[in-house]
Write a structure and sequence with these properties.
Elements (H helix, E strand, L loop, with lengths): L12 E4 L8 H15 L10 H20 L5 H15 L11 H8 L10 H9 L3 E6 L3 H11 L5 E6 H4 L6 H11 L6 E5 L2 H11 L2 E5 L13 E2 L4 H5 L1
Parallel strand pairs: 1-2, 1-4, 2-3, 4-5, 5-6
Helix pairs in contact: 1-2, 1-4, 2-3
Length: 238
């Protein structure tokens, strides 16, 4: 894959993922869980410290989201499972699992506003040169709050949310839908996201170029053409 210099600009449309790419999901989730750990007095029912609780939840949540991306579980199953599995794994009896915890998490977490560093600067720069869009596998109500509370909606011409469309990345149909809505073609479009399966391979298999957002320096597969570790790298690339 070649990123063309400005004098040979090829791309007209850039599609971004939201969670873990622009909106710092793990940081926002950690803030939320610290607050809920205190609110629910989880130390008083024998749970280990907040750090282990967050670590265990994050692992379970990532695994369940991977299953949701590929249609193995539903939104309801994801939400019913992630905290229940975490609590039980950390030693709580199933009868002790606080039933309202998931609801309180879902209400609070999307109100958090941590973005990856230089998100606004990068998006502002790119908006002057390209038409930007979002394609998110997130849920409608949460995604709407995240976009509104962080004031990033100003950068995007179209926001495509999989729950509304009824198709998740990496299904080629959601990329086809996104191009149709944006009035774009494959050859003039670029996908940027953190998920190898959903964002990068989803786009590449559909026939779109893609950049892997890899902020934690995970191993890059050989068949992934290009990665970045910081959003500001896009300023020099594009």
């Amino acid at each position: 894959m070649k990123i063309h210099p400005p004098s040979e600009i090829k791309y007209k449309h850039i599609f971004f993922d939201l969670d873990h790419t622009i909106w710092d999901f793990d940081k926002n989730a950690a803030e939320t869980l610290v607050e809920l750990y205190e609110l629910y007095k989880l130390d008083g029912i024998g749970l280990p410290g907040a750090a282990l609780f967050i670590e265990t939840y994050t692992r379970n949540n990532h695994q369940l989201w991977a299953e949701y991306h590929t249609g193995k579980i539903t939104k309801t199953e994801l939400r019913e499972t992630r905290f229940r599995r975490t609590f039980i794994e950390l030693g709580l009896h199933p009868d002790q699992v606080p039933l309202a915890f998931e609801d309180d998490y879902v209400k609070l977490c999307p109100t958090k506003t941590n973005l990856f560093p230089h998100a606004h600067e990068t998006l502002s720069y790119l908006k002057d040169k390209y038409t930007l869009h979002l394609i998110s596998n997130g849920f409608k109500e949460a995604s709407t709050l995240k976009i509104g509370n962080t004031n990033i909606g100003q950068y995007f011409a179209e926001v495509i949310i999989s729950e509304i469309v009824g198709i998740n990345k990496p299904d080629p149909a959601i990329f086809e839908h996104a191009l149709n809505v944006a009035g774009a073609t494959k050859s003039e479009s670029l996908m940027i996201g953190d998920s190898l399966e959903a964002d990068v391979y989803g786009a590449l298999n559909f026939g779109m170029d893609a950049i892997y957002f890899n902020p934690f320096n995970a191993p890059k597969p050989d068949d992934v053409p290009l990665q970045i570790h910081h959003l500001m790298e896009l300023v020099s690339l594009l």
